Amino acid sequence: MSVYSKQVALTVTAGGYSANDVVGGRINFGTVPAGHRLKSVIVSDLAKQAGAYQLVLFKDGPTDIDDNATFSIADADIQNVAGAIHITDSAGADKFDFTNNKIYCRQGLDLPIDANTLFGFLIALGTPTYAATTDVRVTL
C-alpha cells in the first residue's frame, strides 16, 4: 500500500476568531491519487490556542468562505462532502501541548477519498487568537 501525505500551511488572521469560524479559508490539498484512504489528520498550532477543530473535506471545489468568516456551507456543496472529521479531545484526537505550541493528531481514520482534487475547510470550535498569519498547518 502506498502512502500519500500532504501538508498545507494556512494563512490565518493574526487576531481573534469566533466559534464556528473558518480558519485560513478554503484549503486546496491538491491532487489525491486514486484509491487512497485518509488515515490521519494533524493540526499544528504555533500559537498554542485552546479549543478544537472540525475539518470538512470536499471532492470538488466548494464555494469559497473567507478566513475568519462563519462556516455556512452552500446547499449546492453538500453533495460534494467527502467527509467531516472532529479534531477534538472528546472525538479521540490526541492533543499534545508543548511549551510554545501544540498539535492535534486524529488517527485511526479509514475514510475513502474519491476525488481528483481534495478541498477542505478547517473550522474553529473555540475562540482562538493567533499571533501570526502562519500559525496553523494541516497535514493529511
State the shape.
globular
* Alpha carbon gap, first and last residue: 16 Å
Structural class: mainly beta
> How many strand segments?
11
With strands numbered from the N-terminus, the spatial order across the biggest sheet is: 1-11-4-8-7
What fraction of the residues are assigned to beta strands by DSSP? 35-45%
Radius of gyration equals 14 Å
Mean pLDDT: 91
Question: How many helices?
Answer: 0
Largest sheet, in brief, is: 5 strands, antiparallel
Uncertain regions spanning at least 5 consecutive residues: none
Helix fraction bin: under 10%
Listing every helix as H and every strand as E from the N terminus to the C terminus, the arrangement reads: EEEEEEEEEEE
Question: Can you offer a commentary on this structure?
Answer:
The protein is mainly β and 140 residues long. The strands form three sheets. Strands 1-11-4-8-7 form a five-stranded antiparallel β-sheet, with no helix packed on it.
Brief account:
The protein is an all-beta fold and 140 residues long. It is 0% helix and 40% strand.
List the keywords.
40% strand; mainly beta; 140 residues; 4-stranded antiparallel sheet
